[in-house]
Model the fold of this input.
Amino acid sequence: MDQGIQHARERRNALERLAAKIPGLKGYLERETRREVDKMERDWIAAQIDRARELVQQSIREWSRSGDLANLDVASSIDKGLDRFANRVRHADYGYTGFFDAVKIYEDELDRLYEHDLGLVEEVEKLVTRIESLPGTANAAALQAVLADVREADRRFDERATVFENVTSKGGR
Done:
């Protein structure tokens, strides 16, 4: 067994033993882990959006080189929308409160947040797939569909704040 893995397990086991002895520490660690997971999730989503944006930019360059300029304004709107969306996701507030924060979020409420986040991940995956399958020409219908998907994913991200507000307003029980 790798020494690094063994060392990490020993540290985790010591932390688990410590958490078992100090009241509230386990809950604090779980919530802090959730914050870290939330950040990792948002970074992953933003990276997927950035990848999709790179594909759009590559398509724009190819269409421009070939003289296919008819719908580049829509493609440019997609590029700008993806950039805005990625930055909103990347720089959003952490979604889950820490243990000593005034607002507590409980497991059933976290499940609703996670369910919403899963839907957002699926929305971004759908968006990336649609962009990957763009035709070799600047097809107006295909570009309009992608632009609609960008707007829908951005709207769904806006819903995250509403879901979070609803959950935290019930969190003080």
The chain is about 80% helix and 0% strand.
